[in-house]
Write a structure and sequence with these properties.
A 3-stranded antiparallel β-sheet has the order 3-5-4. A two-stranded antiparallel sheet has the order 1-2. The protein has a two-stranded antiparallel sheet with strand order 6-7. The chain folds into 2 domains: about 80 residues, Winged helix-like DNA-binding domain superfamily/Winged helix DNA-binding domain (Arc Repressor Mutant, subunit A, Orthogonal Bundle); about 70 residues, Winged helix-like DNA-binding domain superfamily/Winged helix DNA-binding domain (Arc Repressor Mutant, subunit A), CATH 1.10.10. It has about 190 residues and is α+β, with helices and mostly antiparallel strands. It is elongated, with a radius of gyration of 25 Å. About 45% of the residues lie in helices and about 15% in strands. A hairpin with a 7-residue loop joins strand 4 and strand 5.
Length: about 190
């Protein structure tokens, strides 16, 4: 696209776009005005500017006035592809048992760790749980431990980080910070 064809949004319209992008419900013009400390007439003009910009540049989203507020929504033209994406996304969701979550936590905090070490902490056999976690791609085999029998070592994966919204394993809360149902885990 040539520079002359590029149409930039005003600062107010860009800020409104960012707010609406992150909002979970419609946002009123009054809320936008109060948040941005901008007069209502400027908010109205910026909303119109944003709406026209999205139409002019054939974006996959549109600005809608719904129930007394504004929201960004996918363009109806893309309903079929959005439905397909949701179907695929739903199939890819990871659903695991309490035992799997417990095992995953042990692996995350002790990695690399062997199945025997996991079982020692859990006090229960964990072979099938580990297989489930492997099949979901939440853990991976990270080599073998240099000890008798050379047992497999397990580590978490990038998918684990993604599922739990972590940038890296160092973002896990410390064991001192974790408290679930009144039970504190100790390292």
């Amino acid at each position: 696209m040539a520079k002359s064809e590029l149409t930039l949004l005003s600062a107010t319209a860009s800020r409104i776009e960012a707010i609406l992008f992150t909002a979970t419900t419609q946002v009123s013009e009054r809320e936008l005005s109060d948040t941005l400390a901008v007069p209502l007439r400027e908010i109205s003009a910026a909303l119109l500017e944003l709406q026209e910009h999205l139409v002019k540049h054939a974006h996959g989203i549109e600005l809608q006035n719904v129930a007394g507020g504004w929201q960004l929504a996918t363009h109806p033209h893309y309903a079929e592809i959005i439905s397909l994406f949701r179907d695929v996304s739903e199939r890819q969701k990871v659903k695991i048992s309490k035992a799997s979550v417990e095992t995953l936590a042990i692996i995350a905090y002790n990695q690399p760790v062997t199945r025997g070490e996991v079982e020692e902490i859990r006090s229960v056999r964990s072979e099938s749980v580990i297989e489930t976690l492997l099949s979901h791609g939440l853990i991976r085999i990270a080599g073998r431990k240099k000890s008798v029998g050379s047992p497999l070592l397990y580590r978490t994966t990038d998918k684990f980080l993604d599922v739990f919204g972590l940038g890296s394993i160092s973002e896990l809360p410390s064991l001192d910070e974790i408290s679930v149902s009144g039970v504190t885990f100790e390292g």
